[in-house]
Automatic annotation (TrEMBL):
UniProt cofactor(s): Fe(2+)
Name of protein: Phenylalanine 4-monooxygenase
Keyword vocabulary terms for this entry: Iron, Metal-binding, Monooxygenase, Oxidoreductase
InterPro entries tied to this protein: ArAA_hydroxylase, ArAA_hydroxylase_sf, Aro-AA_hydroxylase_C_sf, Aromatic-AA_hydroxylase_C
Residue numbers binding Fe cation: 111, 116, 158
Gene3D superfamilies in alphabetical order: Aromatic amino acid hydroxylase (1.10.800.10)
Organism from which the protein derives: Larkinella knui
GO molecular function, one term: iron ion binding
Amino acid sequence: MIQAYDTYTADDQVVWRLLFERQMALLPGKASQDYLDGIDKVGFVADHIPDFERELNPRLQQLTNWRVSAVPGLISNREFFELMSARNFPATTWLRRREQLDYLQEPDMFHDTFGHVPMLSNQAFCDFLAALSRIALAHVDHPEAIDMISRLYWYTVEFGLIRESGGAGHDRSGHERSGHDQLRIYGGGILSSTGETTYSLQDPRPSRIPYDVGKLLQTPYVIDRFQDRYFVIESYEQLYQSIPEIEEKLEELLVS
């Protein structure tokens, strides 16, 4: 499948701008610095929808040897993990309408690209995605295993938080930065949601739990409301370095 970029309408371009500008006004001081840097590295701008083949993929392949592959929508587990293990991130090409700016049941292109693609500029994060997908492919016909891997993916790639440290001063957007560790967002499901961006960091109701592979594999998630809990990593290297533990804990849980 191809993106068919020339079929986007003027209204599609306006919707992209509205969504992009709204999130970019909100994310400095909330999003991971690696994500914010990634926005520039992959070339995302307000004035046009990303062109996968002519603009985005050449940049990504130079950065981390990944690319974005157009898909029609939700795809099978096997196809999803086959693409990811080959360093192809699946992204839909359809964009929500103006009346759907705040909520969609199924991820659209804004979620798939704006939410996720800037993190594909981070090598450790990319290596984690590819390795996790290879584990999933080895268990793709085992529903219980896929359920557990889906939980881990959900609480990291989609709804993960990271504790970032930085010296006092100002970040790249001119916002004041303290010298203390701060929670920041790297999960694409949060980064593409205006409401959950603020809720995930500032609301007192959800739990914020240190990254724990065994707990993650056994923690159900919700899809129809903001999350009840978030898991917090200390670095993207921690994610990649946890791959052997993921394999080990998964095998333990499957035979228990």
